[in-house]
Structure formats: C-alpha cells, structure tokens
Amino acid sequence: MIGGLPLDTWLLVVVSTVPGLILVVAAYRVHRRADLGKKGPRA
Amino acid sequence: MPDLGANGTIIGVLVFYFAVLIGIGWWASRDSGSVAGFYVAGKKLPSWVIAFSSNTTGESGWLLLGLTGMGYLVGFHALWIVLGEVIGVALAWSMVARPFKEFTDRYDAITVPDYLADRFADKAHTIRIVSAAIIFSMVAAYTAAQLTASGKAFSSFLGTSYEGGVLIGAGVILLYTSIGGFKAVAYSDVLQGVLMFLCLLVLPIVGIWHAGGWGALMADIGAADPALLRPMGEHGLSVTGVMSALSFAGIGLAFLGAPQLLTRFMAARGRGQILEGGVIAVFCIIVFDIGAVLTGVAGRALFPGLADHETILPVMSTELFPAIVAGVILVVVLAAIMSTVDSLLILASSAVVRDVFQKVFKPDFSDRQLSLIGRCLTVVIGAGGLAVALPESRMIFWFVLFAWSGLASAFTPVVLCSLFWRRTTRAGAIWGMIAGFLTAVLWVWAVKEHFYDLYEMIPGFAAGFIVTIGVSLFTEPPPGADAELDDVKRVVGGPFSAGEGGRAAGVPAGGGSR
Prior knowledge:
The structure holds two protein chains of two kinds. By secondary structure, chain A is mainly alpha-helical. In chain A, 77% of the residues lie in helices and 0% in strands. The mean pLDDT of chain A is 82. A two-stranded antiparallel ribbon of chain B has the order 1-2. The longest helix of chain B is centred in the middle third of the chain and has 49 residues. The chains are: A mainly alpha, B mainly alpha. The interface between A and B is large, with 33 and 47 residues.
C-alpha cells in the first residue's frame, strides 16, 4: 500500500498515462525537426 | 436540490453560456457558405482547436455523467478505461493522423467516405452508400444518448422534467450547429473543452478535500468495499474480471478511426498542427479521465447509496458548491453533451449531402445551395434523435458506448488497413465495414449477456479486420494504390522516422484518377 492504495493500482495509473505521453512527445520531436527543416512551420 | 434563488442563478449562468454559443455560430457562419467551409472549416484549423475538438467530441456527456458514475460504481477498476483511451488517443495522433491527413489532402476529401471512395477508386459509389447508412443509423442512436444525458442533467440540477431537459438541450444545439457548421462546432468545442478541463481538475480536488484528504478518502472507500481500491475490481483476476478490464480498455480503440474524430485531422491547417495537437490531446485526455474517475471515487465516500450513480456529478456540484459554481458545472455538463451532438449532426449531414447527394446523384446545385441543404438536414437528424430520447431515460454509459462501437467497428479496421496495408481492396473495405458494424450490433442483441458482458467493440473490431483482410486477399487492389501508399509513407515518415516531404513525380493524386 502507498497512500492507502494497493501497489498494483498505482502501477495501473502509471501504465495508463506515461506510455501515451511518451509516444506523442517522441513523435513530436522526430517529425517537428524534419517538418521545420523542409517546409517551414506550417508543414 | 437547489432552492428557487439558486435555480435563478444557475439559469442566469446557463442563458449567458447559450448566448455565447449562438454568438460563435453567428461568427462562424461567415465562412460556412461552401460545402468544404461548412463541413471541414476550409481545412484551416490550428492545433489547439483540433485537439480540443477531437477530445470533446470523443468524450461527450458520457465523460461527466457516465464515467464519473462508473468511478462511483466500480472505483479504481475504471482506470482500465483511462488506459484504453490514453493509448488510443496517443496512437491516433502519432500514427494515424499524419498519413490520413496526407491522403485526404491529395484527394481533396472532406469526409471519411470521400477518402475511402477515392482510396479504392469506388466508381459504383457502394462505399459512400454503405458508409452513409451506417453513419445515419448510429448518429441517431448517439444523438439520442446525448440528449438523454441532457435530460438527466437538467432534472438533477434544476428539478425540471426529463423531457423538458431533452428539449432545451436539443433546441440550442440545433440552432448554433445549423447556423455555423463545422467551424462553429470546432471553436465551441474549444470553449467547452476548457470548461470540462477546469471542472475535472477542480471537482476531484474539492471532493477529496471534503472527504478529509487522500488518506481518509482511501480509508473510507476501503472500509465500504476493499474491491473499489483494486485494479481488477470485485471479480479479481478471474475470467470475468479480465473480460471486464478488456471491455473498459477496448473503449479507447475507437479513437483510431471513428469518422467523427478523423474529420478533425482532415480539418487541420497542416501536418505540423497535428504534431502539436497530439501532445495537447493526450495531456487533456489524461486530466479528463483521471479527473472523472477520482470524482466518482470521492463521490462514493461523500454520498453513498445514490439511486442513480450517474447523478453523482450533479449531486456533488449542488451539495458542495455555491449556486453560481453549480450553474457553471451544469454548463460544463451541457458543454460536453453539445460538443458531441453538434459534431455528430455535422457528420451525418455530410454523409448525406456530400457522399450521397453531391457525389452519387450529382445535382446541378451551387455550393451555397448544397450547404443550405446540409443545414436543413442537420435539423431533421437532430429531430430524429429527439424522437428516440424523449420516451425513455436510459443508462448513459452503455447507451453512448453502443453507438460509439457501431461507428468505430465499421470504420476503424478499414481505415487502418487502407493506411497501412497495401493489399487492401475495395471489396475488402466494403465487406469489412458491413461485418464490423453488424457484428457490434448483433453482439449486443444476442451474445453479450451470455459472454461475460464483453464490450461489443472488441468482436466488432475483430470481425472488421478479419473480413477486410480475408476478402482483400481474394481480390485485387486498384492499380497504383500500393505506389501511392509508398509515396505517402515516404512523405510523412513512420511514427518515429521523419518523412522526406513533397510528393514524388508520377504518383497519382487520388484514386478517382487511377
């Protein structure tokens, strides 16, 4: 128990939120550099 | 229930909000004179507008009344819904949106059936007609579910009759949607999304504070029922528990290809807007969903034994806040409902005007005349939803999810195959749509209650993929389709590899020209 909530529930909280955030931020970083380099900010 | 003075304050807040919405409709009407202007706002929307519009359209009154109610009913087991939705939204924005935007720009497509018909060179218009029939039937059910939420919200906050609440909600939505088209819908979605975001940030914090802090809340919930704290809920790690978790997580699959959400990608100003929009959308959906589940959990400790668990948010609002804040929260609930219904009305109207009327019958009508027909159709479809919602107050959570799964099961497998699998054919797409849709509907009707209540989206998706792939393997894709897919992939790149930009010479632009 951490803060009155079982450990596996906290694990579900982390799995529910962190991978999704990592995915969009990683995609943003990869493509933004390429789009800005080739076609400008409105690419 | 608030007293008459409190009701007056709530009504005042409500009238102000409705006036703002109608003002947005009037402002947006200047750019809605053409078909493309009315249905995709001329493809000029910035990242923050498409992100909020996509999230609020996907979430609806289901989030504020349905998901808070589910948090109240099953506790932290509802976190599986958060997992499915966050992953679904993240995959949609990082993998689906960019190639979809590139294809639809090449085809000058403004609806999802438009895109599919061009992608598979469907000169017989079968894809358009099948799509329009599915969209029309599911939008009627979806709209009815949202108007049901409107009826429940008005009766819980103001003590009006259920029918009165349904009628007021329908009247305002039809007015500003039919005036302003997609631009009004998208910009009002931003206002509505910001309100929903703030509400779901503040409400759980206040709820936890009233419960005596986080530790006291967890102790109360654990004492009431320890299963409410566990991720697998009351069933534990049994077949029923796993099926329940799968059903909850499966809700998020729809974000990958439901037509009302894909329209947002089409309406973006460019691919760069999609990159920024993805980050905004995922951050927002996390706040939306975690906020809703925690609101329900706090509500369970504060107001145990509610007859209808889907009224926990109105109960908390009127009991924990002064009348003016309760009025704002009612506005937020209505905002969530309206942001979905308006988008659905635009979707169904576009399916008839653009995909059937303009493309199949090819009448000699001007753009302005077609746009006017679209407005009239919006009112007719809304009236249909009203007729379904008025006679009976159903459970919002599953009623919304039925329509959500019908649309997503029909379109998502086919759209994903069309974007990523070069062997997809026209026949595969048509039969995949029909199989996904019918499986979802028949599952609810005949199988669901005998099979662990497994959510219909999962068999619907499985059937959609199996039939699309199976039929495609026995038929031929349109000539040039694979070269076009390769070129789109080269231009936009993969999820973690940058594209090269610029279309290659000699690659056809649009299946219709193949």
